[in-house]
Amino acid sequence: MNRRTLLTGLLALPALPLLVRTSFAQTTGSTEPLMQFEPLDRPHSYWRDKVSEQAYEVLFEESTERPGSSPLDKVYESGTYVCAACYLPLFASEHKFDSGTGWPSFTQPIEGHMGTKQDYSMIWPRTEYHCARCGGHQGHVFNDGPPPRGERWCNNGVALDFVPEGDDLPELRG
Fold first, then answer.
1. Dihedral, CA atoms, 70, 136, 132, 37, nearest 10 degrees?
2. C-beta separation of 60 from 44 below 8 A
3. Given 26, 72, 86, 108, which residue has the most CB atoms within 10 angstroms?
4. pLDDT tens readout for residues 125-156
5. Which of 83, 86, 131, 154 is catalytic?
6. What order of strands is seen across the sheet that includes strand 89-92?
7. Under which main EC class is this enzyme filed (predicted)?
């Protein structure tokens, strides 16, 4: 490859988002009931003393925990997974599955409780998702999940808290 071809290719990188289409919508079509909430407009520093250091790094600095490090990866009881920062319910346990990746994985979130954006940190575009209320980074969604949706919502365990069925959900925080 000559230098001109390389430079032309590098100049085309900013156009990549226009060429790549994602199959993941902002809303998921879930049958879960929508919870009424107002998105929060808080600086990331607001959350520093409300979550653990590792959770803060994942949620508000978009870090990733080591695979296999979260106890939530192997939790399969009935309940609800909520955002570790603001406690917005994000996933129902009935949509959790063992992806073998070492991170808690779900086939779909609770409708309207996630926002998405394109992430180019690994050069190839991925769909990042975050809590629709506090904006905390949760993980990435991929199209290699089980039928019928084919989605794998791969979540950082430290970005979630689990509330067993029968327990009261915590009041929203923030």
1. 90
2. yes
3. 86
4. 889 999 999 999 999 999 999 999 999 999 99
5. 154
6. 89-92, 79-83, 160-164
7. oxidoreductase
Q: How would you label 132-164 residue by residue, b for 16+ Cβ within 10 Å and e otherwise?
A: bbbbbbbbbbbeebeeebebbbbbbbbbbbbbe
- Give whole-number Cα distances, 44 to 35, 86, 132, in Å: 23, 12, 14
* Distance separating alpha carbons of residues 139 and 6, to the nearest angstrom: 32
Q: DSSP label at 69?
A: -
Burial of 86 by CB count in 10 Å (0-12 exposed, 13-18 middle, 19+ buried)? buried
Q: What would the two tokens of residue 52 be?
A: 């653990």
- State yes or no: is 154 an active-site residue: yes
What are the beta bridge partners of residue 154?
105, 140
Q: Are the CB atoms for 96 and 106 separated by under 8 Å?
A: yes
Q: What is the mean pLDDT of the chain?
A: 84
- Residue indicated by tokens 């978009």: 62
